[in-house]
């Protein structure tokens, strides 16, 4: 069988395009590389190749394939290997489903906190983003790496790269590489936090970025410099006076006001009050928070404060504590996830609150979870 004629339209500094390089390298395929300058408007000829103007685009025997995940999947399917088994029989289909779920968990629960970190304006914000990233890993990704215990270091216990590493490798290079103090993009505390709380993930990530097919085009300093310039915040989101006034009135209401919901304005400049609630039923608040919509009716992130009342038990009486909640649904667009993540500490510090919860699913803010966080686990004991 003749070798396919492959042309890769790419930019080596783009993590999405990097996926195609990893797949082609690991599969041992020869290809022509055409670099697309992403800093200027796309040339008309490239818009004929890919009307969206994005990279990567792949020409495979004259057929154009776009979008990085689709390109990598196509290459893995067209050239059967250790990257991905054929879709049948059922065991193979189940493996493919698990791999797809793993990749989705990584990009929906972990990667947004990385983007928030590189957009952060302060070390405190980067530390907070790192803690949120690790929390996402611990809850969503670490359990999916159980098969690596005592086996190969890659997904499913494989001793060779899989499509999971092809799709995530370029981001792992950035997450771990940018945690070096000289880059100032990701908290330097991240590696230790991962070692302590998510050792499987850390082993998997380190094995992935050490693989030649993953790192052969990687230029850490050059990419870090560009990322810092690209994602440096052009402006800070400000907490409006109305937010502080509403909060002070809330604290003095002695339980009459139960919660405040805040949002970032559509122009991305200000934190403003979205709603004030008096209903004593926690589920009313929870439903309202989860039902938050943007100006176009789509699910939207929010911040909230809630007055948690609880009984210590043992005759010690009732207590109350205000808890801060960051609500960022898992399907929130990346830009808004970044903005909310980098502004979270700004608002929390302005309100002088310590107890907090970050939630991307309604199950994260069930009453028992909120009660435990507010009471330090002492409620009812």
Automatic annotation (TrEMBL):
Domain ADF-H: residue ranges: 234-375
Residues in GST C-terminal domain copies: 88-231
Pfam families: Cofilin_ADF, GST_N_2
GO biological process, one term: actin filament depolymerization
UniProt keyword annotations, A-Z: Actin-binding
Gene Ontology CC: one annotated term: cytoplasm
The keyword Ion transport appears for this protein: no
Location relative to the cell: Nucleus matrix
Top-level taxonomic group: Eukaryota
Membrane-spanning residues: none
InterPro entries according to UniProt: ADF-H, ADF-H/Gelsolin-like_dom_sf, ADF/Cofilin, Glutathione-S-Trfase_C-like, Glutathione-S-Trfase_C_sf, Glutathione_S-Trfase, Glutathione_S-Trfase_N, GST_Omega/HSP26
GO molecular function: actin binding
Domain GST N-terminal: 4-83
PANTHER family given in the database record: PTHR43968, S-TRANSFERASE, PUTATIVE (AFU_ORTHOLOGUE AFUA_2G00590)-RELATED
Family: Belongs to the actin-binding proteins ADF family.
Protein name: Cofilin
Native source organism of the sequence: Penicillium subrubescens
